[in-house]
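Researcher: Structure prediction, please.
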Amino acid sequence: MSAEAGPASGGADERVRRVRLPADRRTPAAARALVRTMLLEARLPELLNEALLLTTELTTNAVEHARTELDIEVDTDRNGLTVTVTDFASGPVDELIVGVRNTTSDITEVAARGRGLLLVDHFSSRWGTTYLPTGKGVWFRLDRPGPGGSARPSAGPLRVAEPEGNGDGTPSAAAMSELMQLTPDSYADEPLPEFATGLLTRVAEMVGAAGGTVRLDRGDGLGTQVFARYGRPAREGNELLRVPLAVHRPYSGELELDAAPSAYARPLAVLAAERLSLHLENDRLRRADVRRSTWLTFLAEASELLAQSLDVELTMALIPQLVVPRLGQWCAVHTTDEWGRLRLAASSHADEAMLPQLHRILQETGQDSIQSRLREASRNAAQMPLGGPMEGFAVPLIARGQRLGTLAVGRHQRHRHDPDEVSVLEDVARRAALAIENARIHAERRRVAQTLQQSLLPPVLPVVEGIGFAAEYVPTGDDAEVGGDFYDVLPLPDGRWLVVVGDVSGKGVQAAAVTGLVRDVIRVLVGDGKPLPEVLGRLNETLVERGGGRYCTLALAAVAPGDGDQLDVSLHLAGHDRPVLLHGGGGATFVGAGGTALGLLDTITTPTAELTLKPGDALIFYTDGVTERRRGRELFGTDRLRESAAPLAGYSADVVAARLRAATIAFSVEPPRDDIAILVLRNDTP
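Model: Predicted structure follows.
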């Protein structure tokens, strides 16, 4: 009989070690470590494989069934090894007693009796049970083969029909633990397919399946794909074991084994599917995070591109280029006019050859046409699906409560828009609508600024016999801003001509208002025949009272024919840069004396300089937009202006003004930061 009351020790050279281990999944590993140490100390390496196998079986079953602490006792001598596993669960001893000793070497012939003791019955030299008031235990003895040891069954090749099963046909904890130990390679580029293949192969071998397949649909429009495969394809008519993968949308899939759905195979297949599902779910979350990050990057780049354009037509042309082909097969932007009618503003198609057909379909009218769906989307301010032949959907373009039009997007031929893509398109529509509205506002501001700027400058300069007038004006780089630079040429009551060049501090509407005030006051006062010094004094009082803290530099020059062919010029400077006198015979000098800018102090000084222009001489007025033009840290400056003017002696006023303008602009590649105004007065007497 193999059932004995207690283990028999070997006597000489006996070593005994006892440990108490918790009811934990790591207990079998700790027990194996103890047994391995004892066998190596006793110089019994030939018993190692069987001892570790039986120790694992007993401790695993004890942990799973007793669920109490375990006492492990290992007793070695020169002839063999005895291991006793004792738990502290109450129960009848007859549950653990076995029958007649098995003598066959084929495990498939072992009678199914006891719980988890089939391997013990087969491999041990003898085994038995112990029963104590505190619990019960199972022991086995392995003797060294040959002289001094007992003969024991061969441990040769085994043919396993239902490996590592419990007595009720379900898989043991050891079998389940083996599946739990498989993990993906964290250093591989694509670890999941290799992990799925290894897991599928192992579970198929454990249940004796002829083949198996893992199918997965990632919801990326490619449909269900074979993720892993083992063995041969299932034969038609075979009963298959199928377990769905526990993954969230858009993922879906199943594990399929070419095996009968038995009580042993199904738990192992379910465990394998759960293990794979856990890693696939992590993969889904990782991919979703990467996808979300990609969409956020796309939206940020789209916003930056849309924000860079302040031109309405360019902005609308840019929108379809952003959408196609990343978010759709085609895209069309329609804008709404003041009557609520839709007009195609821009479109794009992944296949340019399809654009004429797209335009023709977009122009069709009727109850079920795309036009009617677009009008409905604009009227209801809601997303609308579009039917064939250009299937897709339309979203309204709304910014600051204004309905600007619609954005229509067609789906790809083999892929429907998923919820993330729909959300991104709606976000693109919101950003595009805001960009269009901003471009329209900027265009209106630019139109207002240009109109206001033109009103501050004379439409044309007068044509006077013997006197040449020419002017050049370059607004600041921001054409939506109104500058404070201005010029004018007025007739005086005494027959002279008055040249006015000024610069009001600041930019914008406030600066334009002060500029208009200065021009109007000058025109009124000189029209009444007031002397120029008095005009400057009255203008200073006006700016101090009504200038809003802004000041103005001004240059006034009264021009009249003098003796012979000369021109007499009376020059008054109120804080303005001195003009350049370009001599007809060559050379250029600065003339005049600086005075006090207007609007800063209650009293001002404006020295008068009397000049004479000979035939061919020219007087060049300018604003600080010329001298303060920057190239890095370098300024254009007054000296460079004089050097640029000197070679222009003998040229007409128009040529001089144009050449100086070109020299100023060419000094730097940057757009002007300030207005540039140049006015040339020349003695054109032959």
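Model: The chain has a mean pLDDT of 83.
Researcher: Thanks, that helps.
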